[in-house]
């Protein structure tokens, strides 16, 4: 790939890092995922930073809080507990309320069934307890 | 079940019908689902009206447009094409923009993969084409 | 594989065929699946006959009607519409009632959500309509 | 909601509690789920009691043992391990045999594949071991 | 985004187009997906070209035929019939045999169950029939 | 079942055992799964040995390394972490490289989304760390 290409990936990478910084205004978002990717599959770490954060989650057309509520709902629906924990924290960090997040999860009982929605609530319990222990305001 | 119980189910049923009316301000929402349920499993038709519409989708805590964007995202993620078509229309009927809906669907490429997200976009194409053919404003 | 091996597979194959015959006491069960397998992947046709029908569905420990209700419930849950249609017919052919089958499907609204359960009910509508058109008693 | 409405929800709630009592004739069914829901999303605790237990699982049309075998099969199929553990205990508490439950799980190798069915068997191993340790008869 | 950024995306876009050309050596791969994306969600069309084709499927580390067999297997497993049809054609176009593709699909009966694997075989039947009708050699 | 039948199942069983031996040339493949099956559902232990290993994974038409890469990809896609750990070890034991396995997993970000693919990478991290700790060459 040419130098120009590397430069531009850097642009996307930096946009991804800015997104990470925005997400981490409150309690720091776990970077254990990035550590694993950098160690085992570094190209995925770059894809996560450039494509997921730099391209998709940085897009216009939806306000960031709504994007994060969508993530909370979908991650509940697909049972991705690790990422749900991460994005529930992000959503709270950027100003969503706990009530909104509980609604985004509990509504999924209708769409993916009670067992999956209840698993999402159990993840929220851990997130809320951890934030309470840290003395975070929301 | 006592008369009182029947009366109260009627309360929840009417709240569900009010939700249906709210959802149908624009092009009418398909009632083919309700027809099938009333014919084959009438108790599910009541559950859909009372529990889904009267209880869950009528809850406070999230504005109705955000609730519908969540539904659009989750129905994309689980590949429920019939219900996605229905709720994409509901979302547009209650004031979401096409751009918001496209974002809610396309963002899922990150979370459930491109094939599933692309299927969602194909459903939106049908919804938008049908609304254009009907001369609906959004 | 030795002649003995072929002979024994024949035993399992015949037990599978006996199961098919039991399943087909009423309206004939579609063999379009078997035709496709025999044409494209004949080893899967043998696996379906020997392993699925000859081994698993012929096992003791559950009465055949309960086994078929389990199949109806699980095939609803995983959205396997073609196989749900087939096994709903099998269940009715071996003596399950329509009410039991509707319950087995509609109960899944709790466990996998309303969209998936409703899709199951739509399949049942087709099955019941086809059997009514054929003048089958249940 | 009117007093009448509250009264009727109480009727559904009590029917749900009766179902819980029926389910708990043997070793007590874990209430950790209810504790979490009451703490984080109390409306879901009520929905679980009124809708899931009071409405759906209290319906006529299928005997309770068959309903529970369906739950065991479907919860295996969707990989809901926590709820599978709960409903395997319920099934045994209301009179299903271990053999029936093993069949309901192992049959799913055909329908959702061996990895998922094997995970179900691993849950059963935990359930059976715990009941053996408690000296429960089945 | 700067001019440089646009240029580099063009590099990735062209690498994606080269991949498309490689995939289409035999019967042309359907572009109906790209048409829909360009019409409804043009940013997804660019993501598909740049990220999916230009980045991921152009990576070193696995030969292209093995990558396509993986796609055939995974698309079978997740029930993505439209994309399975597309990638089965791609796999044949770049030199995989029909036997390899049938094995990649039929093996999934073990891992995701017979209904899903059989659906994959039905897609292959359509692909093989269409190629036979077009007089393609494999 | 007749003596002949038992004999032939023994043939398939031994073919399954030969496959296990082939898979275990390097670090031994965990047999905790077989222990659980033999204890709780011994008929599934035989099915795993005869059908999965003796029939399907012993088929011609695909070289064993490609079969295992397919397993790694599909087990990632369906989130079967226990079996992914097992088959990633098998793949390495029979000569696949770590790079190939990382590609087989990371490519799935496109097809089933980043959360599921990242979970796969986390499993690989455990597998690689364990093999490093054991001093295995690949």
UniProtKB/TrEMBL annotation, chains A, B, C, D, E, F:
Origin, by domain of life? Bacteria
Gene Ontology molecular functions: peroxiredoxin activity
What SUPFAM superfamilies does the record tag this protein with? AhpD-like
Segments spanning the bilayer are none
* Record Pfam families: CMD
Q: Where is the Carboxymuconolactone decarboxylase-like domain?
A: 42-125
Q: Which PANTHER family match?
A: 4-CARBOXYMUCONOLACTONE DECARBOXYLASE FAMILY PROTEIN, GAMMA-CARBOXYMUCONOLACTONE DECARBOXYLASE
Protein name, as recorded: Carboxymuconolactone decarboxylase-like domain-containing protein
Taxonomic source organism: Immundisolibacter cernigliae
